[in-house]
Amino acid sequence: LVREFGATTSVPSSLVYDPQNGDRVWMSGSAAESVATAVTDAAGRAALLADADLEGCALWLRQDEGPVHIVRELPQRLRGAELRVEMAAFGRIEGHVELRGRGHDTVRIEIPRLQRAGAQAIAVASDGTFTVPSLPVGAHTIELAWYGVGVHTLAAQAVEVRAAAVTNLRFDVASIPFAAVRGTVRAAVALSPSLAIECWRVTAPGDLRCMAVLPVAADGSFTGADLLPGSYRLAFRIGGRVQIVPTLLDAGFEVRAGANEPWRLQWLPRSLRVRLQRPDGTTARGERVLLRCDGVTWPQVRMLAPLVEDELVLDPAPQLPVEFRSWVDGAPWSAPVSMPTDRESAEATVVLPEGRR
Are residues 336 and 293 in contact, defined by beta-carbon separation less than 8 angstroms? Predict the structure, then answer.
């Protein structure tokens, strides 16, 4: 029995069972002082001596090395009455990932049901083994995730976890249809030493995921491996700068498993200055705006939406049209603006529509 004060320190176990929703959840922790402790007998009974006032108290129960089971809804005053608690049943998963020469730190084991509640991904050891020591009984999906540029699911298996039993799993990286790409960049100007190619995979309509960033060598060549097959959009990047919107090329590329035909790309640095106005003609200074290019809203993390001062500069600018809108929910999109293909720099004025769609 403990009296909790707030979320500052760690609970004895990182994964706890919350009886209110039936899931294990990640506990950032509660600062707590111990009020009373006891060990149950063979019948599961224990007696705790504590003050009658239980305000702010919770029961932390743990069986062997299993997760902590927390009961927070206690009666305000409890005098000699018996409190019944039903412990959750757990099983164990032991598994192995055939890495085939790839680094163990590039993959993780993910369990969506637990991660929705805040649990962390599970690391894979250098020999490819992994363990999920305590998992609630029932059906679960276990995913093998690739941690490269972003996180991507490589494979998934459905399992049924049984109480006090061990479930064995095996993943083999060789079964993943990785692809390799190569190509050259041609330009009428000297290539920047920090020029790179971003490979954006189309995962769904209106959704792009960056799979790799490929440095461009001094001779314009680039190579990449460990891409997943599918439809891709390519973009140029200079240095470590993350653009408001990627410098997307107007052509798409199909990537197949194994080796692919060389890509031939043309690099022309272009800058687009955009003045954003309200319908009354005043500058949209102080507005946060979102951009849409290739059907995708940018930036993908909405809280990074840029704040308008006098203008937004897209440098380098994408080859595809770009639309703008206020980041307010439901705000309509502006008319699209495109960078002229025959110019290195351009300016445009965009009016942000008012109202909701």
Answer: no
Describe the strand order of the beta sheet including 57-61 as a list of residue ranges. Answer: 23-26, 15-18, 68-71, 57-61, 2-6, 31-34
Using omega within 30 degrees of 0 as the cis cutoff, is the peptide bond preceding 246 cis? no
pLDDT in tens, 276-299: 999 999 999 999 999 999 999 999
pLDDT in tens, 152-178: 888 999 999 998 899 999 999 988 888
> From CA 165, how far away is CA 342, in angstroms rounded?
67
The alpha carbon dihedral of 140, 141, 144, 150 has a sign of negative
Q: How far is CA 71 from CA 13, 26, 107, 223, 266, in A?
A: 15, 15, 35, 55, 62
